[in-house]
Amino acid sequence: MPFVRIDLAKGKTAGHRKAIGEIVYKAMTETINVPKDDKFQVITEHEPDDLNFPESYLGVAYSKDIVFIQITLNAGRTVDMKKAFYKRIADDLHEQLKIRREDVIINLVEVAKENWSFGNGIAQYG
Fold it and tell me: Which residue, 21, 109, 34, is CA-closest to 71?
């Protein structure tokens, strides 16, 4: 059900970008009950000047290596599940790809199940 958009500045390898997607997918399946093979992702690189963000916000300082992760998914996860999910992604990106935890921005967009069509013009969950 989740649809993931990952945005970052140009300059990383295809392997690096793919690894970010895999880390997010694994965290989804292991912390917020996303089914196996439910992996729909768009990973987009941008010119550095096309990413507009502050030097810091809420006490967090950002670098040019900031990564924006937006996930549209069905509503229903608890706050504790979401917190564990955010931490898991930031920790795994840091440990596996050396991305600063501070540079991981995550946004969840929760929707009702009937807001999905996975092909053939059918609302599979509606």
Answer: 109
Of 65, 75, 69, which Cα lies nearest the Cα of 116? 75
| Strands of the 40-46 sheet, one edge to the other | 40-46, 3-9, 67-74, 104-111
Residue 117's contacts (CB-CB under 8 Å, 6 or more residues apart) are 123, 124
Helical packing angle, 79-97 and 14-31, nearest 10°:
150
In a domain, 123, yes or no: no
Side-chain-side CA neighbours of residue 96 (13 Å)? 17
At 14-55, the pLDDT tens digits run 999 999 999 999 999 999 999 999 999 999 999 999 999 999
Name the residues annotated as catalytic. Answer: 2
Range of the domain at 18: 3-115
Q: Which of 102, 14, 17 is nearest to 6 (CA)?
A: 17
pTM of the predicted model as reported, rounded to 2 decimal places:
0.92
Q: How many independent structural domains does the chain possess?
A: 1
